[in-house]
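BUG: 3D viewer hangs when loading the predicted structure for this chain

Environment: internal workstation, default settings.
Expected: structure renders.
Actual: progress bar stalls at 90%.

Input used:
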Amino acid sequence: MLGVIRWLSRLSPSATYVLGGWLGWLAWLVSPSLRRHVAHNAALAGVSAADRRRSIAEAGRLVMELPRLWLRPADRPIPDPVRWEGAELIERRLGQPGGLLLLTPHMGSFEMAAQAFAERFGAAHPLTVLYRPARQDWLRHLQETARARPGIATAPASLAGVRQMIRALRRGETVGLLPDQVPPDGQGVWAPFFGEPAYTMTLAARLVQQTGAQLLVLWCERLGGRDGYVMRVSELAEPLPGRADSDAALQLAAATAINRAMETLIRQNPGQYLWGYNRYKQPRAMAAEHG
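Structure tokens produced before the viewer hung:
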């Protein structure tokens, strides 16, 4: 398998784009559960048939570009063109007390988003990203090796990882989260997402509440082939609530506001959202701490 991944990493951007589109449709054809998730999730959001079809191909491209991104030598710049829109929003907040929290939905190339941020800002302002380790030993090792790049630190989806992110923010650094990722049981609340209750992490709001971190939304649009990517940065659609009658009410209100912000962003380019992600599933049990 590693040999195949290395071979894929040497493909041109154009070949990766074309093969990725085929891979997306192949996965859709052979997986009834994927077809079910795409149909259900996209229907809730009122996604057009054209954007739904595009999202199927884009999901394959997301997977196909990983070998190029993961196996890129850490000492070499990103070879693809990467254009920024809204970088000044980040520049004004870097190094501030409490740090900077970047929220990125399952949209576009979130792997490229981390690498592009690290290449532009990471030398002076490191980025810590939350990740869920793969179950297979070989893939977990590949993930950890690929993401151990200058300017990027990884935090596992565990209590130890949460503590790591809090320390990074208190140092004035940056943390990146996928707020539409279903958290473990006990780490979220049921909040509406495109009109249906979805188990939503409270981690993003709690990080802001505990550290005073500033909050921005970032995603990386995939243009295709040799055209590269666009990093799009924006303010949150609405400020997070500062108080409520109880902590439970505050976390629900904050999670609802973050979900609305993600909905606003996704509607701008629904063809690049990962509609096949099982967003409305029941949460898994929290992994036990080791060490």
